[in-house]
Amino acid sequence: MNNAVAGFSKLSKKEKISWIANEYFSNPEEALAIIRNYWNSDEKLQQLHDEFIENTITNLYIPLGVAPNFLINGKYKTIPMAIEESSVVAAASKSAKYWATRGGFKATVINTEKIGQVHFTYNGDSQKLADFFTNIKPKFFSDTQSITKNMQQRGGGILNIELRDKRNLLENYFQLHATFETKDSMGANFINSCLEQFATTLKTEAQNAGLDLEVVMSILSNYVPNCIVKAEVSCNVEDLTEKHIPNPHDFAARFVQAVQIAEVEPFRAVTHNKGIMNGVDAVILATGNDFRAVEAGVHAYAARNGQYSSLSHAKIENGIFTFSLEIPLALGTVGGLTSLHPLVKLCLEILEKPSAEELMQIVAVAGLAQNFAALRSLTTTGIQEGHMKMHLNNIINQFEATDEERNLIKIHFKKNVVSHSAVVEFIQNLRK
Ligand code: MEV
């Protein structure tokens, strides 16, 4: 079979689907039925989703859940989370409840600066380039006025533009390093439009001045180390009760140790931070934000001191246990999917229409809560007990259990340890 195809994007949706079904399936009708099964019966809604991307054939669902009882800066929030991993929402809800009776979560936005760069090469005297840059700097602002006007009205805009000499890294390499405030929008389009105009201005002015300068590319940076939010919980060590460890001081000490391991050990740090991102990404997805951008930026931040390390920290000082998380988050609550996707709009309403700064706080809290739940399990019972309990449903579904079988399985595994093989064996015995 030759799986290459010419002009695929020009085919109709029906033709695209037929091609896929015939090309890759021995039973094309069965494949078509699955694809159609996930179409929305509301044709307009389906069309909306079709048009988000190119070559849409159907929709891939992931569950949208909610974790209630999050006390954040004194106000209760119900956090929407879109995620396929079975234990995440349950863990978030459990942490929310735990901390609601211990003062809740405190969250603070430290700063909100976004970054973009024009990368270029220049072959010549660097002082001449520096003087040229100083001369034309006001022009970068005036040439972008039509782009920045609305953003300025909302209190944002271009903060600064610097010329950076990067010749220690690459021959003739320089940058315009620009910083932005984009208020409630994530700002990618705004920043990239400004940068492309900077590049045009730079090229034109360099030509007029007879400089040997060539623009390579202009793009925002998803690394935003000055767009930081901090989330924190704290309580008296005595109040850090945990049913599996009778003495709260022992639980606190073990918890702090678990965080210290993630601070010094990259193999552990990656998994530790993955647990944080379970919470972060679920809210990012539910609110229509760009989880790839957030992931890339967060992990770069975790490695900012030269070694990949924990994003969260824990300490015991003067009888107080404190657990905190600091992460860079470039988020938007206007623009992009936030006004296009009906479920994203609904999630933002559940969050009571937050500003981007409020959303940063909520997301960081979800990350910290998730991390707390993971470390609490890891330092007490281990995670498998909870994970497998949640995973039980997936195994039951995989075996297409009847309602009666389902009941018997649930009763049995209330008292017995869940493992994939134990469930399979139990089902097979039931079916004998
Ligand atoms: C699983 O999705 C996340 C954990 O592995 C996080 C961690 O180990 O801290 C439980």
Structure summary:
With 432 residues, the protein is an alpha+beta fold. The protein has helices at residues 13-24, 28-37, 43-50, 88-100, 126-143, 145-153, 188-209, 248-264, 266-286, 291-302, 342-350, 356-378, 384-398, 403-415, 420-430; strands at 64-72, 75-82, 106-109, 114-122, 157-165, 173-181, 213-221, 228-236, 312-317, 320-328.
Provide the fold topology.
Layout: H1 13-24, H2 28-37, H3 43-50, E1 64-72, E2 75-82, H4 88-100, E3 106-109, E4 114-122, H5 126-143, H6 145-153, E5 157-165, E6 173-181, H7 188-209, E7 213-221, E8 228-236, H8 248-264, H9 266-286, H10 291-302, E9 312-317, E10 320-328, H11 342-350, H12 356-378, H13 384-398, H14 403-415, H15 420-430
Antiparallel strand pairs: 1-2, 3-8, 4-6, 4-7, 5-6, 8-10, 9-10
Describe this structure in words.
This protein has 432 residues and is α+β, with helices and mostly antiparallel strands. The chain folds into four domains: 8-50, no CATH class; 97-103 and 229-381, 3-hydroxy-3-methylglutaryl-coenzyme A Reductase, Chain A, domain 2; 114-221, Alpha-Beta Plaits, CATH 3.30.70.420; 386-431, no CATH class. The longest helix has 23 residues, at 356-378. The strands form three sheets. A four-stranded antiparallel β-sheet has the order 3-8-10-9. It has a four-stranded antiparallel β-sheet with strand order 5-6-4-7. The protein is built from 15 helices and ten strands. It has helices at 13-24, 28-37, 43-50, 88-100, 126-143, 145-153, 188-209, 248-264, 266-286, 291-302, 342-350, 356-378, 384-398, 403-415, 420-430; strands at residues 64-72, 75-82, 106-109, 114-122, 157-165, 173-181, 213-221, 228-236, 312-317, 320-328. Helix 1 (13-24) packs across helix 2 (28-37), helix 5 packs across helix 7 and helix 9 packs antiparallel against helix 10. A hairpin with a 2-residue loop joins strand 1 and strand 2 (75-82). It is 49% helix and 19% strand. It comes from Flavobacterium geliluteum. Pathway: Metabolic intermediate metabolism; (R)-mevalonate degradation; (S)-3-hydroxy-3-methylglutaryl-CoA from (R)-mevalonate: step 1/1.
